[in-house]
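Letters spell out the chain; backbone shape is given numerically. Both lines appear below:
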Amino acid sequence: MASVEPARGRRGAGIHATAEAAARGAFGLVCVLLFVASAAVTVGLGASMSTMGAMPMRGGWTMSMAWLPMCGQAWPGPAASFVAMWSAMTVAMMLPSVAPTLWRYRCAIGRSGARHPARLTVLVGAGYFLVWLGVGIAACAASVTLAALAMPWPTLARAVPVAIGGAVLLAGVFQLTAWKARRLACCREAPRAGHAPVLRAEDAWRHGLRLGAHCVASCAGLTAVMLVLGIMDLRVMAAVSVAITAERCAPAGARVARASGCVALGLGSWLLASAVIGAA
């Protein structure tokens, strides 16, 4: 009997390892397919919106016609297009950095005896991306408001390049703060479900919302850079996505955050100086 128990234990461990490997493979495949689909939609919608052209504004910058509906066109149409692009873009940008966190959550609740770990993990992801959707809606409202104000007020239009440089400069400062370092550490250590697993659907949903809120706070600087430099520019999106993924997943994530902050400081200083000289 003594030799039977260890054999059963080894078989049980082998079955568990096989099941976890299968779950990992399925999780990875779903993430890859979702990333490819969202990236394709982002590129397609971005190309469609870029064909709308841009209007030169006072101060030497251009405003996308996406924020200036044609005569007789209602705002919900362009707003819906932007929100659709934002939703696809945030999945493509944030999935590479949040996928390891979701997998750790999946493993934690699986070890705790959850009946439907995949379903709970989906709820966490849905809550996470819902927070980012809220950020996109706020960004859309701000862009529409700026477009409406900049057209009749030339003084405001001339101040936009200075504001862009200042925003990028402040984003660089933010990347170097201790507050940013603490927020990043929280994101890198999440989830805490390994200590207190959440096994109910409503708890998983709230966990996803909290995870999204922490991530939005941590990525505030880099998100601001993307918003002011070109929310429809695929190159800016790709650069910000790489920076966010590196600071969240690379072994030296804190150094990556500081390095991106230094880059933003340099870029913001150059943009601000150029704007001031151009306005003089």
